[in-house]
Amino acid sequence: MTFQWSAVAGFLYGEIALLLLLCVPLISPVRWNKIFIIPIWNKIANYWNKAFLTIIVILIVLFLDAVREVRKYSNVHLNEDSTHSSSHSAFDHIHMKLFRSQRNLYISGFSLFLWLVLRRTVSLITLLAKEMEAEVALKTEVANSNEVARKCLEENEKLQQSLKKIKNSGEHSSGVTNEKLVQEVQQLKAELKKSTEALQKTANEITAVKRQSEELKKEYDLLLKEHEKLQHQTNEDANKKDR
């Protein structure tokens, strides 16, 4: 194996190891997001985008070169089968070249595909972490709204009990006092209405976030299944190569 294909093979093994690390369930998406937002990544973001595109171009060139080699030696193999004029050693040599070309094709193809999958996986993990943080913030807001609504209800009940006591005891308050009580009741009702609307709005937002989180989890599970299939196919190719 030449240096360039050894480098591509090492790059492929590195991609597989990194994807397996990202799929470890012990590390939550929030923790990965904290790693992704380290200030050093912001400094090299521009260089990272250029490097990402450069690697894609290199892998595409190597993949096309491997396709050309496979077609080249496949055609030679067909000519040998049709004419039966080549020697046994030449036939084995062509088979060896064809096997190496196919191996290089698989290595470059899987490297290119996993490189795109890795980029997509990182994006999904980042998005899922943001949605989880937003969900926690919404739950906190809902809890605060419930607490405010509970306090308003308690104050309203206390006010109603005070009005009942005044009515039962036959005490008559002055017009100013009654007007203040009516204003306080109206104010408490308005606050209660606002708290109820805020609670309903927050509940709707939580429902939407949960739906979006479920969709993200489904997409993440699909990527995991594709990764397992690719890993299984890579292991089969490696076993064929060892044989």
Short key terms for the protein model shown above:
mainly alpha
SSE layout and pairings?
Layout: H1 3-22, H2 29-36, H3 39-43, H4 45-83, H5 88-169, H6 175-242
Rounded Rg: 34 Å
Main β-sheet description? none
Average pLDDT across residues?
78
**What's the total number of strands?**
0
State the CATH topology: Helix Hairpins
CATH class: Mainly Alpha
- How many DSSP helices? 6
Name of the CATH architecture: Orthogonal Bundle
How would you classify the quaternary structure? single chain
Q: How would you explain this protein's 3D organization?
A:
The chain is mainly α. The protein has one domain (3-242): Helix Hairpins. It is 91% helix and 0% strand. It has six helices and no strands. The protein has helices spanning 3-22, 29-36, 39-43, 45-83, 88-169, 175-242. Residues 77-83 have low confidence and may be disordered.
Summarize the entry for a quick read.
With 243 residues, the protein is mostly helical.
